[in-house]
Amino acid sequence: MNTKKVVITGANSGIGKAAAIKFASKNFHVIMACRDLAKGERALKEVTSLSKNNRVELMHLDVSSFKSIRRFSNEYRMKYDVLDVLIHNAAYFNHGEQEFQESADHIELTFATNVAGPFLLTELLKDLLAKSDDPRILNACSTNIKHFFDPKRTIELDNLRGEFRDSRIYSVYKHYGDSKMALLMLTFRWAEEFRPHGIKVNAVMINNIRNEWQSIKKVRSWYRVAAALQNLIAAPTSMMADVYFHICTSNEFSETTGKLINHRKEVVYCSKLDDNAGFSAVAKEIKSGKTYPKYADNREAQDKVWVYCRRLIK
Ligand SMILES: NC(=O)c1ccc[n+]([C@@H]2O[C@H](COP(=O)([O-])OP(=O)(O)OC[C@H]3O[C@@H](n4cnc5c(N)ncnc54)[C@H](OP(=O)(O)O)[C@@H]3O)[C@@H](O)[C@H]2O)c1
After folding, report:
1. 6-31: b or e for each residue (b if 16 or more CB lie within 10 Å)?
2. Cα separation of 85 and 119, whole Å?
3. Is 262 close to ligand 1, i.e. is its CB under 6 Å away?
4. How far, in Å, from the CA of 305 to the mean position of ligand 1?
5. What is the whole-number distance in angstroms between the Cα of residue 12 and the centre of ligand 1?
6. CB of 253 closer than 6 A to ligand 1?
7. pLDDT tens figures, 63-95
8. Beta strands in the chain (DSSP E)
9. How high is the pLDDT of residue 1?
10. How far apart are alpha carbons 162 and 182 in whole angstroms?
11. Which residues of the chain have pLDDT under 70?
């Protein structure tokens, strides 16, 4: 019997819920780490009945709150002494929101949910992961990082405490891209740090997967129209759940670490394009889905993100 444990954040809808069904149907012990417990209960019933696996449980986790993350980690440790797979799937992406949004810890909400939260959760669970015989971490990244093909684009780290909230336009869309780039950079750094402990860390580059109406409703103005239209041609969540499962369990990726992987299960490599490359060359690279912007490999930028996250969780 498979006794492996997987924690999936944001498993009460969309890809996270589909991933819970996939792992549960393959007999994993699934811990659905969700903020909205009412929605979580409904999802839990669905996952249990579709997978016919009773070892699926719901635990409360607001990944934007350090207090909630610490509580979740303590509760997990009281029950279990090992973790095999950790999937940072939850994300904040309320595009169109115009008021600066901050977490309970006064960190810009996109960064708090998509970067700082996963950073602390990983820190608190890494020793339990190290006890697994095949530990893997997966970070939900996005094709939105394509905006960093613009050589002038950098992660806006100086406004995450709202330092310029009165003078800069607040764009969740931009913070979202920043957060996914930061998460990719953390993927590279965690992979290095955890190599001696055998923990593999990868990121998956997600694009246009079907959203539930509840999620579409979170985005505002023309972003909602665009999301609803895109949904018509989007791939089903089960498709991405299969990719999550493959990256986290297959022999093919058992030794892979510090990589970005696309929806075709191909490793994505750093672009070799010159900074002065023309629009069509850049567009061709983005369309191929086979490369990521050079900025992700920038050691100085990675250090800044790493140090910033370390300072936040202190
Ligand atoms: N769908 C796509 O085309 C696409 C493209 C690129 C990347 N992605 C990435 O894929 C992942 C899953 O997204 P999805 O498309 O499946 O959308 P989704 O159904 O809206 O899932 C997002 C999940 O994150 C949860 N969440 C948000 N803030 C949270 C918090 N503070 N604490 C705990 N959970 C929180 C949400 O729970 P609540 O119900 O509590 O809000 C929800 O369960 C995300 O990382 C997203 O960025 C998706």
Report:
1. bbbbbbbbbbbbbbbbbbbbeebbbb
2. 15
3. no
4. 22
5. 9
6. no
7. 999 999 999 999 999 999 999 999 999 999 999
8. 5-9, 29-34, 56-60, 85-88, 136-142, 200-206, 259-261, 267-270, 291-292
9. 60
10. 18
11. 1-2
Q: Which of 92, 176, 223, 292 is catalytic?
A: 176
**15 CB near ligand 1 (under 6 Å):** yes
Question: Is position 76 annotated as part of the catalytic site?
Answer: no
Q: Which atom of ligand 1 is nearest to the CA of 89?
A: 45
Q: Which residues pair with 292 in a beta bridge?
A: 270
HSE-CB of 71 using CA atoms within 13 angstroms: 13
SS3 call for 164: coil
The CB of 40 under 6 Å from ligand 1? The reply is no
What is the three-class DSSP state of 160?
coil
DSSP secondary structure, 241-271, as one string: HHHHHHHHH-STTTT--SEEE-TTSPEEEE-
Ligand 1 near 92 CB (within 6 A): yes
For 230, residues 6+ apart whose C-beta sits below 8 A from its C-beta are: 208
245 contact partners, CB below 8 Å, separation of at least 6: 19, 22, 23, 26
Pocket test for ligand 1, best of 7, 8, 9, 12 (most atoms within 8 A of CB): 12
